[in-house]
């Protein structure tokens, strides 16, 4: 049980620790509650055949990936917006539109 001091109502007790989400799972492991790291949006953009997620639907790396796939005779797919939590464990961040930001840079 975690207490949070609220000046207007007094202490508030939460039934989970602050390192756990409302589902009782560690925040970094919960697919519904996982927060993106600094430099990554809550909603990101992907294509079905891609390996990275993007902050912007118009990222040049999406177009480049689609062009590369097409030139190799592979299928291309439309860009879709998805919650970061859905792709956090299976895709890497795009180095162009999802820069790595440290706490001091924010």
Structural category: alpha+beta
Average pLDDT: 79
Oligomer: single chain
Based on CA atoms alone, the radius of gyration comes out at 18 Å
Query: Could you list the spans in which at least 5 consecutive residues all have pLDDT below 50?
Result: 1-8, 12-17
Provide structural commentary:
This protein is of the alpha+beta class and 106 residues long. Strand 1 and strand 2 form a beta hairpin.
Question: Keyphrases for this structure?
Answer:
21% strand; two-stranded antiparallel sheet; 106 residues; elongated; disordered N terminus; single chain
Quick recap of the structure?
By secondary structure, this protein is α+β, with helices and mostly antiparallel strands.
Fold blueprint:
Elements: E1 2-6, E2 10-14, E3 43-46, E4 52-53, H1 60-71, E5 80-83, H2 84-87, E6 92-93
Parallel strand pairs: 4-6
Antiparallel strand pairs: 1-2, 3-5
